[in-house]
Amino acid sequence: MRKPKVPDYVPQQSIRWLMGRVHVGTPDAEVEADMRKRCSKATEEQAAACVEFALACHHENQGLYRSVMSGRL
Fold it and tell me: What global pTM score does this model have?
């Protein structure tokens, strides 16, 4: 999976922290809706960048879970 180019205004550590607390079975649509709600005061471009980064973190966590559960860690 490719890592998105993250603009400087995206709060990467905060989003990583939030995504670390989201269950790996949570659907992408729910993650996106939560991030858009949190970015309600941001522009559409800023919100889209945050959503893209959040989904990348979420998919990274899902990959880690699959690796651990399959014994390939």
Answer: 0.89
Domain ranges of the chain: 12-70
Pick the closest to residue 4 from 59, 66, 44, 67 (CA basis).
59
54 CB-contact burial (10 Å; exposed 0-12 / middle 13-18 / buried 19+): buried
pLDDT over 70 percentage in the chain: 93
| DSSP per-residue codes, 5-73 | PPPTTS-HHHHHHHHTTS-TTS-HHHHHHHHHHHTTTS-HHHHHHHHHHHHHHHHHHHHHHHHHHHT--
DSSP state at residue 1: -
Handedness of CA 12, 15, 17, 20 (dihedral sign): negative
Give first-to-last CA distance, the chain, whole Å: 18
